[in-house]
Predict the structure of Kit ligand.
Amino acid sequence: MCWVKLNVFVLEQSLGDLSKKFGNISSNKDIIKLVIHYLQEERLNIQNNVDMEGLMLDFMCHYREERWDTGKYFDFVNELFRAAENESYSEECEPPPCPTTPVPTKEYSTGIVD
């Protein structure tokens, strides 16, 4: 459940950025807005039991920005939804130590850095 707590807000932001790439009358934009609404509800449920700001600060050193293909991205969204179902938000998250060396990035021929 710790994984869900740490990713729900970041995923919400990412989907918000994605929705901006569609026109105002796009059905894709409407669907993404529904998913964002669901994530906001999940985040509110979590925040009732957890200090989210403090938790996210403790884990900030473990985040890294990546670009995934569409299938992998929405597999991640589905995985988060499945993990969030029927879970208790009361358990605490203990952060592992921050990495002492930066996480390497990979550059592919497309020029996209993952």
